[in-house]
Write a structure and sequence with these properties.
single chain; alpha/beta; four-stranded antiparallel sheet
């Protein structure tokens, strides 16, 4: 990609005009997207105008917006040069990161899994990956669609493939069955699989299906309900507890005290979606209070701005939160990372 050229705007015009040229026509077409849909998304989200001529683009808008758009296009083109594809989700994530001035700073946070790579798509996702690299116990808190579980599984697979841990252990409370799994029909695998399906989905998105099956059979990857964790010491492992808002205080303490040598533990949950029986306090909420000042524990709080699913999901989450605010119920989240003994920014 050639260096951008800044044209002089007409006298009295507050807009900034910037020209960029991409050397590889084939990659430029991928960058622009089918019918230039990637450029259209950047225009809509940053309030800029993007005109194309061959492999050149001209950006017009406020100085700040044009600079962000330039960084987004440069970053995405660089991804294409490295052999990665660019999707609508990648475009949206690049816009969020560049708008927060974190695109270049957080490039090192890329999760590499052989022929696959995963990048943070929001500042809080970047903070989450940093926390997982730095701390032995990390809590990822916030609404659905923010990548809490997906990124944790990505880090777990990366460490397993690189030989940094011997196994991955993924767990969820089977609250819908009341943890009374013995009373359900079928084999044990048939009993628990429906409750653990989201974890399997994340695994199959990270690794080829034959590898997932092989590693499950060998015990390198274990997917089990929370009730199966009792009495174990989880060493040399990357351990993830998903949907932790549905644990009781006793279950949460049991799980957290399973942490062994050379192990990392990530706990994810959404305190606005507790499915426990009425009057039962969430073990996740209790843990946040109890562990607030414990060294080596980090808390990352996601908001609707971190939702990376369909854009409508973000609007749905926001609408529910506003409704809960009016009614005075529901959990409210503070953006960023809180960590004992350190600055909340967790630089």
């Amino acid at each position: 990609m050639k260096a951008p050229h800044q044209a002089e705007p007409a006298t009295g015009t507050p807009d900034k005009i910037l020209c960029m040229e991409f050397e590889d026509n084939r990659l430029a077409m991928q960058l622009f997207g089918s019918h230039h849909n990637h450029l259209t998304r950047i225009e809509q989200q940053l309030d800029v105008t993007i005109d194309t001529f061959g492999n050149q683009v001209t950006l017009t808008g406020s100085a700040d917006s044009v600079d962000v758009a330039r960084n987004v296009l440069g970053h995405l083109y660089g991804r294409l040069e490295q052999g990665h594809s660019v999707s609508r989700q990648e475009v949206d994530g690049a816009v969020r990161m560049a708008a927060a001035a974190g695109l270049n700073r957080d490039a090192a946070l890329e999760v590499r899994i052989r022929h696959r790579s995963v990048l943070p798509r929001s500042p809080n996702q970047a903070a989450y990956l940093k926390a997982i690299d730095h701390d032995e116990l990390v809590f990822g808190l916030g609404p659905a669609g923010t990548g809490k579980t997906y990124l944790a599984v990505a880090k777990a697979v990366e460490r397993l493939v690189n030989g940094e841990v011997d196994r991955i252990i993924l767990s969820r409370p089977a609250v819908e069955a009341g943890e009374q799994l013995g009373f359900l029909p079928g084999s044990m695998r048939e009993k628990v699989d429906p409750y653990l399906r989201p974890l399997y989905d994340a695994l199959y998105d990270m690794l080829p299906a034959p590898q997932v099956v092989k590693r499950l059979e060998s015990g390198e990857i274990e997917v089990a309900p929370l009730a199966f964790m009792r009495g174990r010491t989880l060493a040399n492992a990357f351990v993830i507890l998903d949907e932790a808002q549905n644990t009781t205080s006793v279950q949460m303490k049991m799980f957290l005290t399973r942490l062994g040598e050379n192990a990392r533990m990530v706990v994810t949950g959404d305190l606005s979606q507790v499915d426990l029986p009425k009057g039962t306090r969430s073990g996740l909420r209790h843990a946040l209070e109890v562990l607030e000042s414990v060294e080596g524990v980090a808390f990352v709080h996601f908001t609707d701005r971190d939702v990376v699913r369909h854009p409508l999901v973000s609007r749905i989450v926001r609408a529910y939160e506003e409704a809960e605010d009016r009614l005075g119920v529901g959990a409210r989240y503070e953006t960023g990372v809180s960590k004992t003994g350190d600055d909340p920014a967790h630089d």
